[in-house]
């Protein structure tokens, strides 16, 4: 019953987005969302299913719109990106994530890296490096506990500047993860030149690994690639024990998905962390 209550809100889907939501109204509302405290960071655990160890978490943004209810980031992030408001939004998420994680550490919670999703405009912003450094300094968070998730689409936009920026972030001590890996057009040649730490297998592959031989082959290939390049590999969207078993058999031991935990608000995630301490 509790579970049902927690998940009883529903997200607008994309067809509703077009017909019901007025993009401009949404854009306007979004500008007020931060100051009116309508945005909230949710946290989804990354776990090792063999040891039940909590190995990290991803920050996923939620917008509680006063009239429209919960709006999915799949809807409002693209709106923020188009309007340019994503710059401010992204800086806010980065700052909040660092403050929250540093707060947990000083409270004696399990020490885990926290990953944030980064949009292109934030990654390409001239203030990126200074902004990341400022967030780390002000929160007193060690850089190794900050992970930036960057899609391969973002990385491939301007390769030489990408390499410079990634290198500078690595020098700062921040971890770098390639998000939605396999869905874009990343060249394996460049992958080797990017100073990255982790590949994240997209949910679209994980979904059908048990039934679709193509997705199974792609997933196995990504895991092999990560192992050969000495990168960590994380599978997202793991929903069934069959999927988890497949991934474990292929050597992917870090997973994220509803099978283990949904994205949850801060208080609930803190209880999750405390439980993981007792295991
Ligand atoms: P993503 O980075 O690929 O994040 C994973 C998405 O998969 C999340 O959707 C998460 O809730 C969902 N998910 C995780 N496990 C499962 C599972 O087992 N089954 C299913 N069906 N779904 C699962 P969410 O939270 O709706 O976020 C959607 C996208 O919005 C994210 O995709 C990311 O691209 C973007 N996003 C979210 N927060 C931020 C943010 O703070 N900044 C930026 N730039 N983008 C964000
Ligand atoms: Ca992500
Ligand atoms: Ca994804
Ligand atoms: Ca498929």
Largest sheet: 10 strands, mixed
**Main structural class:** alpha/beta
Number of strands: 10
Provide the gyration radius in Å: 19 Å
Query: SSE string, helix = H, strand = E?
Result: HHHEEEHHEHHEHHEHEHHEHEEH
The proportion of residues forming helix, as a percent range, comes to 40-55%
Average pLDDT value?
91
How would you describe the oligomerization state of the chains in this entry?
single chain
Distance from N terminus to C terminus (CA atoms, Å) equals 26 Å
Strand content: 15-25%
Number of helices: 14
**Low-confidence parts:** 1-9
Q: What are the bound molecules?
A: ligand C2E, calcium ion
Protein name: cyclic-guanylate-specific phosphodiesterase
Domain EAL: 23-277
GO molecular function, one term: DNA binding
Organism: Fluviicoccus keumensis
What does this structure look like?
The longest helix is centred in the middle third of the chain and has 21 residues, at 86-106. It contains 14 helices and ten strands. The relative contact order is 0.12. The chain starts with a helix and ends with a helix. The protein is an alpha/beta fold and 279 residues long. Strands 1, 2, 3, 4, 5, 6, 7, 8, 9 and 10 form a ten-stranded mixed β-sheet that branches. Residues 208, 212, 215 line the site of one calcium ion.
């Amino acid at each position: 019953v509790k579970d049902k209550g927690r998940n009883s809100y529903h997200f607008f889907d994309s067809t509703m987005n077009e017909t019901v939501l007025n993009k401009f109204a949404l854009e306007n509302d979004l500008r007020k969302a931060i100051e009116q405290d309508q945005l909230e960071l949710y946290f989804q655990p990354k776990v090792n299913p063999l040891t039940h160890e909590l190995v990290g978490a991803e920050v996923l943004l939620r917008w509680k719109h006063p009239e429209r209810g919960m709006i999915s980031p799949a809807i409002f992030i693209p709106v923020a990106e188009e309007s340019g408001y994503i710059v401010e939004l992204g800086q806010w998420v980065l700052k909040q994530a660092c403050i929250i994680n540093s707060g947990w550490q000083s409270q004696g919670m399990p020490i885990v890296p926290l990953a944030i999703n980064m949009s292109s405009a934030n990654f390409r912003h001239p203030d990126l490096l200074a902004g990341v450094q400022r967030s780390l300094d002000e929160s007193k968070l060690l850089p190794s506990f900050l992970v930036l998730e960057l899609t391969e689409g973002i990385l491939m936009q301007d390769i030489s500047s990408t390499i410079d920026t990634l290198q500078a972030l690595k020098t700062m001590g921040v971890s770098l993860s390639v998000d939605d890996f396999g869905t874009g057009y990343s060249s394996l040649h460049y992958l080797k030149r990017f100073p990255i730490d982790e590949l994240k297998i997209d949910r679209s592959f994980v979904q059908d690994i048990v039934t679709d031989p193509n997705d199974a082959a792609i997933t196995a290939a990504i895991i092999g690639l990560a192992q050969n390049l000495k990168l960590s590999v994380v599978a997202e969207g793991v929903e069934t024990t069959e999927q988890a078993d497949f991934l474990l058999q292929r050597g992917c031991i870090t997973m994220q998905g509803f099978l283990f935990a949904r994205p949850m608000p801060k208080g609930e995630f803190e209880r999750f962390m405390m439980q993981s301490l007792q295991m």
